[in-house]
Amino acid sequence: MEFPSIYKYFYFTFSAVPVILLGWLQITKSALVVLFQYWNRKAIYDKVFFLLLFLQLILSGFSWFQYEVTFYDSPETVYISPKWNFFFILISLLNFFFLGFWKSSWTRIWFFSTQIMMLIILLWGSLEPVRYFFDFIDVTEIKYRYTFYTFVLISVSTFLSGFLTFQDEDKRFDMQ
């Protein structure tokens, strides 16, 4: 008696897959159209700022350091992220969503305070890497990867781009 109901269940499940995929395709297409229209309404400073915020978010998730370890006469490279990685990812994520899609007077304060705090921690972490970046490895064994330097460069560029974007908005909307 169980077999016919299981058969009907699997038949319905497999026949519903194309409908579900078409639904998700339609939702994705609608979202991309809305995002494209949103993108076209933005000024050039806003577009650059949006891209820099996105790059900062992506680079915050990568590993920034590497070191060599030897197992049975076979050297191996290990890539690690900073121990404060949650902070960099969270701040980058919140900045991307707050400032990429929504702007108000408090988001400016939020952006500058969090970005300055992140840059201070990056600078301080460069001076004291054991405290902020890693603590179980000898500092002389660690090599900074290009992703760390790129993240620092993108973070500074994002700060400057945010400043220029807000200056441009003030001129356009006579907020001075």
Can you give a write-up of this model?
With 176 residues, the chain is mostly helical. It has helices at 2-41, 44-60, 85-101, 105-127, 129-132, 146-173; strands at 65-71, 74-80, 143-144. It is flat.
SSE blueprint and pairings:
Elements: H1 2-41, H2 44-60, E1 65-71, E2 74-80, H3 85-101, H4 105-127, H5 129-132, E3 143-144, H6 146-173
Antiparallel strand pairs: 1-2, 1-3
Helix pairs in contact: 2-3, 2-6, 3-4, 4-6
Biggest sheet layout: 3 strands, antiparallel
Query: Mean of residue pLDDT?
Result: 85
- Regions with pLDDT < 50 over 5+ consecutive residues? none
Number of strands: 3
General form: flat
Put simply, the count of helices is 6
User: What order do the SSEs take from the amino end to the carboxyl end, as H and E?
Assistant: HHEEHHHEH
Report, as a whole number of angstroms, the end-to-end distance.
77 Å
Coarse structural class: mainly alpha
Portion in strands: 5-15%
Quick summary:
The protein is mostly helical. Helices cover 73% and strands 9% of the residues. It has helices spanning 2-41, 44-60, 85-101, 105-127, 129-132, 146-173, and strands spanning 65-71, 74-80, 143-144.
List keywords for this structure.
9% strand, flat, 3-stranded antiparallel β-sheet, 176 residues, 6 helices, mainly alpha
